[in-house]
Structures are given as C-alpha cells and as structure tokens.
C-alpha cells in the first residue's frame, strides 16, 4: 500500500502543475466537448503510465541514458508547443467560433489521443522525476508487487486529474458565452506558445 500511495503522489505531482498539456486539455474540452477532452487527457495519462512503468523497472538506467537527449527533447517539445499554440490561434483568427464548433467531429478521438500521448512523451523530465522518486524511496520498490502498486497509483492519479480537467473544460464550454469561449481559447493558446518559447530560452541559457 505504501508503494501505491507513493505512486499516486508521483502521478499527481506530475499532472497537477499547470503546464502546456493541462491548458491544451482544457481548451480541447472547451471547444469540442468532454469526449475529446477525455481522450486528450487519456493520452497524457498513458504517457505518465509508460514513464512510471519504465522508471519502476529501470529508472536509474533510463535517467542516465536519457541525459544526452535532454536538450534535443526540450527543443523538440518547445517547437511543438509553439506550433500547437500558433495553429490554435491561427484557426481562431481565420475561422472564428463557428468553425470551432463544426470541428468537433473533424478529428477522431483516436487521433486526439495519439497527439497528446506523443506530446507528453516528449517531456524527458517526467521519467527523470519518476526515477528520482523511486531511487529516493529506497527498498520500498525492491519487490515486483511494490513496483506494480507504484505504477497503478501513478496511473490512477494521472487519469483522475486529466479527467477533472476535461470535465472543467466541457462545463465551461457549455456555460460560457461564445465570445468568452473565444477569449479563453486565445489566452490558453497564447500561454502554450509562451511555455514553448520559455522552454527554448532555457535551452539557450543552458538551464
């Protein structure tokens, strides 16, 4: 049970901070409804599950192996975030709210899931965090059952938080007037672009 609690703590610690993924999940649910937001969150939660599993099996080895890829992954993540935020802003400016409504059925939930899975997997800090948490936990994860409980706790925590974001976005989409939805979407996409730029700046600064 201790391993499950540590896994749940790790899952919430990774998922809860307001970052680009959280913003994009809320925006997806706001514009396209709960189902789209849920599958976006499921993609992000699946990435957390994969990283938690890898970290539980070989966290220390993976952390060392991923170190040389840290900068390229940060650059790729920053570019992708800028592209996603810019594309969202371009769509709002070019087509307006009516097009956002009609786009609800244009992108399958499977495609949404894949996009958010791939984007979340670009973050090397996730596996490094899980690895450091396991290493700091000592012998609690020495047994296979403890590792399974850790992964289960992390996965359940992540998916519960991502689902909460989807619920929040879908409720806001139903209750906010059209203009407020557009403004909210613009702010969200600008924040995503800003996070992408900040990621690239940190790379240039050597941070």
Key terms for this structure?
207 residues; 0% strand; 87% helix; mainly alpha; globular
User: What is the share of helical residues?
Assistant: over 70%
Order of helix and strand elements from N to C terminus: HHHHHHHH
Morphology call: globular
Low-confidence stretches: 97-105
Structural class comes to: mainly alpha
Describe the main β-sheet briefly: none
Quick check: average pLDDT?
A: 79
Tally of DSSP helical segments: 8
Using only CA atoms, what is the Rg?
18 Å
Assembly type of the shown chains?
single chain
Strand residue percentage: under 5%
Termini separation: 37 Å
- The figure for the number of domains is 1
- What's the number of extended β-strand segments? 0
Q: Could you walk me through the main structural features you see in this protein, from its secondary elements to its overall organization?
A:
With 207 residues, this protein is mostly helical. It has eight helices and no strands. It has helices spanning 2-15, 20-32, 34-66, 70-102, 109-121, 124-137, 144-175, 178-205. It is globular and about 55 Å long.
């Amino acid at each position: 049970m201790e391993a499950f609690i540590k896994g749940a703590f790790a899952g919430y610690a990774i998922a809860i901070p307001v970052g680009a993924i959280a913003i994009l999940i809320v925006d997806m649910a706001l514009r396209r409804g709960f189902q789209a937001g849920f599958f976006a969150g499921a993609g992000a939660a699946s990435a957390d599950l994969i990283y938690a599993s890898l970290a539980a099996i070989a966290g220390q080895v993976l952390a060392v192996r991923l170190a040389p890829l840290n900068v390229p992954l940060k650059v790729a993540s920053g570019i992708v975030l800028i592209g996603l935020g810019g594309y969202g802003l371009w769509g709002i400016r070019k087509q307006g709210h009516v097009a956002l409504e009609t786009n609800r059925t244009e992108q399958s939930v499977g495609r949404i899931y894949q996009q958010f899975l791939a984007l979340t997997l670009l973050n090397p800090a996730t596996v490094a965090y899980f690895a450091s948490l396991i290493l700091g936990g000592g012998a609690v994860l020495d047994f296979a059952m403890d590792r399974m409980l850790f992964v289960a706790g992390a996965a359940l925590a992540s998916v519960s938080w991502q689902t909460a974001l989807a619920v929040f976005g879908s409720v806001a989409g139903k209750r906010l007037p059209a203009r407020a939805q557009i403004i909210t979407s613009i702010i969200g996409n600008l924040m995503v672009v800003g996070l992408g730029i900040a990621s690239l700046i940190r790379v240039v600064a050597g941070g």
